[in-house]
Amino acid sequence: MDVEEETARIVAEMRRRAVPGRAEGEKRYLKSDFVHLGTTVPEVRKVARTAAVRSRDDALALAETLWTLTESGLAVHEARMAAIEILVRWVRLLEPKDVGFVERLVRDSASWVYVDGLAEKVVGQLASGEVLDVWVGDSCMWVRRTALLALLPGVRSGRPDLGRISRYGDLVIGEREFFIRKALGWVLRELSKKDPAWVHKWVTERIGTISGVTIREAVRRLPEADAQGLLDAYRRR
Length: 237
Fold this sequence. Notes:
Layout: H1 3-16, H2 22-30, H3 41-49, H4 56-68, E1 70-71, E2 74-75, H5 77-89, H6 99-108, H7 112-126, H8 129-135, H9 141-149, H10 152-156, H11 162-172, H12 178-192, H13 196-205, H14 212-218, H15 224-236
Antiparallel strand pairs: 1-2
Helix pairs in contact: 1-4, 3-5, 4-5, 5-7, 6-7, 7-9, 9-12, 12-13, 12-14
């Protein structure tokens, strides 16, 4: 595969599919300093899926080139989104050692809009528990968020790592960073769909330290009486 040629084709196709007027609105919503073409996420995904990827090297090289693409010295939002979709689409070709490449993208991310897809759909498939154990204590907030969200595939498949969910939750429950509080609540909410009793017990035991952002997410899918009881206890604390 000619990486430069394929990158140019993908960007040209995303530009062709751009929605007039969308770019500026998206920039405001994401508080972004990047170049925006105005292409919707579904269209970015469609274009990315047409990439001529045949090997692990192809996937990594194309993702790298799209991620680092600039116009007028600025990164291109849709190119970064396409890079993520390339890694998601061909994650089966990647190897555990490639988690280092993905970590670099996470650290270079400026928004949840890039981190979340990488966390669940790429890191969640590649990273070992030992890697995530290190990441959850990292000084970079986006890396810590990734460690939490990388637990979601196990939750959704019915094989949750309850030990790590509990340990990571205890490590971050006192953080004031919104994106960490939200991520913990998100994991608990997804788990509550399959194991509401575990989530109810875990939250009950931490009602004195859990944040409002986290508990509101955590109780969203619990039985109404359980959810209301936890919210009442949180307000009384």
